[in-house]
Write a structure and sequence with these properties.
The protein is an all-alpha fold and about 290 residues long. The protein has 13 helices and no strands. It has one domain: MetI-like fold (Orthogonal Bundle).
Length: about 290
């Protein structure tokens, strides 16, 4: 907890990014509450429950879509689905990437060469065409399946970043002292190295999650993706296919785009804040 408050006080970018991220998470978590307040006993996502293309008002802050569904509720529920996909994909990708990074960076030698080559190979594979092929051939793909597919192509970024930090830390005096006291490799990794890398791992997981959300949105904009979920990408796809902007129904596309942009900005602000705190050169520049 003390470390968190140190980060909070040390960087304005970190504070702003974290506040934006928390606000978005709260908005998604309160989706059912927003639905109950707007619906007043009815389901605002039911087809034809309201008139189509209602303009924003107190009853419907973002108006309704072509099927008479409340756009604010759709956005909140869609954000929750997108965050779920992103978190699942981010956790899986980061967990696998961290394992690869620690094995490669700590062991070194031939093991490091093999894992580094595998990581670099995955980094140069064109992800989007493979995701398009996967989604096109598996039309009834589920949330869990798409999360796994996204994780498969996301882990190399975490592996490469964390490996560089492990290479830097493994030669530090306290690690050499740990080896001299006959600590096992597992003890050194979990007690000496891992605690010092938690900020990098956390940011890596957040970046992988946002990357997965944006990748999924890109798939759905071109008509691919999970068939059993209402998420932000689906809302944008609906807006494009319905010609919402030409009809003046701008909220259905502006709301999900604004939220995706806010997610991207929040994670990058947190990343920049941590860089300023843990990178002495950047900290001196920021202080100047």
């Amino acid at each position: 907890m003390g470390s968190f408050w140190t980060l909070w006080r040390a960087s304005r970018k970190f504070r702003i990014g974290l506040l934006i991220l928390v606000a978005l998470i709260l908005f998604a978590a309160l989706g059912d509450v927003i639905s109950a307040l707007i619906g007043r006993g009815e389901d605002p996502l039911e087809l034809g429950i309201y008139n189509a293309w209602l303009v924003p008002s107190l009853a419907h802050p973002l108006g309704t879509d072509r099927n008479g569904r409340d756009i604010l509720v759709m956005t909140a529920i869609g954000l929750r689905a997108s965050l779920l996909i992103g978190v699942v994909a981010g956790v899986m990708a980061t967990a696998f990437g961290v394992v690869v990074a620690f094995v490669a960076g700590y062991k070194g030698g031939r093991i490091d060469s093999v894992l580094r080559t595998a990581t670099d190979t995955m980094l140069v594979i064109p992800t989007l065409p493979l995701l398009i092929v996967e989604s096109a051939f598996q039309r009834n793909i589920s949330l869990l399946q798409i999360s796994f597919v996204l994780a498969v192509f996301s882990w190399p970024f975490a592996a490469r970043t964390v490996r560089a930090q492990v290479l830097s830390l493994r030669s530090r005096p306290y690690v050499e002292l740990a080896r001299a006291t006959k600590l096992t490799d597992r003890e050194i990794i979990f007690e000496e190295l891992l605690p010092n890398l938690l900020p990098y791992i956390g940011v890596g997981m957040a970046s992988a999650s946002v990357g997965a959300i944006l990748a999924l949105a890109g798939l759905e904009i071109i008509g691919l993706g999970p068939s059993d979920a209402l998420d932000l990408g689906i809302l944008i796809s609906f807006a494009i296919s319905w010609g919402a902007l030409s009809l003046g129904a701008w909220p259905i596309i502006v709301a999900p785009v604004a939220i995706l942009s806010a997610l991207f900005i929040a994670v990058n602000l947190i990343n920049f804040g941590l860089e300023e705190i843990y990178n002495p050169r950047l900290r001196s520049i920021a202080g100047a």
